[in-house]
Design brief:
The chain is built from seven helices and seven strands. By secondary structure, the chain is of the alpha+beta class.
C-alpha cells in the first residue's frame, strides 16, 4: 500500500508537512471568515429584536445576554484569525480589560449574582493580547457563577505586585513586578482533590452539564504564554479565587 511516497506513514517530508500546514491555515481562515458572517447575522438580528421590545421586557434582557455572547464570539473569531495568520502581543491596560469583562459578566450572570470591580489608581500595564485576557477573565466569571447556585458576589480586581524570590520560585516565574488580575467568588469552593486536578485539560465536574474541562487549562496557558503564571486557591464553603500574574511594564 502506498502512503503518498513515504516509507513511514507517520513521517512526512519537511516540504509536505509545510504544504499541509499552509493548507490548514488557509482552511482555518476560510472557516473563520464564514463563522464571522454567521455572527454578523446573529448580531444584526439581536439589534432588530431589541428595537421591537420595550425596556423592562423579559425578552429584552435575554437579547442583551445573547448580544454580549455574540460579541465575545466575534472577539474569539478574531483571535482564531490571528492564530491562523500569526499575531504579536502589544502593551495593554489590565484595568480596561477588567472593566470590559465586568460589563459582559453582569449581562451573563444570573440575577442572584452580583459582579463588582476593585482597581487601583496606579497604571496596570502589561504586554498581552487584550482580547485573550478578556476571554480568560470572562471564562473565570462564568465558572464563578456556576459555583454560586444560591447567589453571591464575583469580585474582579487588578493591582501591581512585586514577587519576591521565594514567591517567584513557587510560581516558576522570574522575580520582579507583575500585574495581578483576579476573579474571586464566595461560592461552594472545591475540595483539595478537585482543586489539585482543576487545571488539567478535560477535567471537569460539569461533564453532563456543558463542561468541557478546557476553561481553566486555557487560562493557565494564556498566563504562561504572557510570561506569567496562573494560581487557583479554594476552600469548600468559602469560595474560590483565581489569580493571573502578568509581567508589568
Amino acid at each position: 500500500m502506498a502512503f503518498d511516497g513515504c516509507a513511514d506513514p507517520k513521517v512526512l517530508p519537511a516540504q509536505d508537512a509545510e504544504a499541509r500546514l499552509a493548507a490548514l491555515h488557509r482552511q482555518a481562515g476560510a472557516l473563520v471568515h464564514d463563522f464571522n458572517n454567521l455572527l454578523t447575522v446573529i448580531l444584526n438580528a439581536n439589534a432588530a429584536l431589541a428595537e421591537d421590545l420595550a425596556q423592562g421586557d423579559p425578552g429584552h434582557d435575554l437579547i442583551q445576554v445573547s448580544q454580549a455572547a455574540a460579541e465575545q464570539g466575534a472577539v474569539l473569531v478574531a483571535r482564531l484569525m490571528d492564530l491562523s495568520q500569526g499575531s504579536d502581543t502589544a502593551p495593554m491596560d489590565c484595568a480596561e480589560a477588567v472593566a470590559a469583562t465586568a460589563r459582559r459578566a453582569r449581562l451573563a450572570a444570573p440575577r442572584n449574582v452580583t459582579v463588582e470591580v476593585r482597581l487601583t489608581d496606579a497604571p496596570l500595564l502589561t504586554v498581552a493580547d487584550a482580547a485573550g485576557l478578556e476571554s480568560a477573565l470572562l471564562n473565570l466569571c462564568v465558572n464563578a457563577s456556576h459555583a454560586m447556585p444560591a447567589g453571591g458576589t464575583i469580585m474582579l480586581a487588578a493591582q501591581r505586585w512585586t514577587l519576591s524570590a521565594p514567591e517567584s520560585a513557587q510560581l516558576a516565574v522570574p522575580a520582579g513586578r507583575y500585574v495581578v488580575v483576579s476573579v474571586a467568588d464566595d461560592g461552594v469552593g472545591m475540595p483539595p482533590e478537585v482543586l489539585k486536578q482543576a487545571m488539567e485539560p478535560f477535567f471537569t465536574t460539569r461533564r453532563n452539564r456543558g463542561g468541557t474541562g478546557l476553561g481553566l487549562a486555557s487560562v493557565r496557558d494564556f498566563a504562561q504564554g504572557c510570561g506569567g503564571a496562573f494560581v487557583l486557591t479554594s476552600r469548600e464553603g468559602r469560595g474560590t479565587t483565581a489569580r493571573l500574574y502578568l509581567p508589568a511594564l
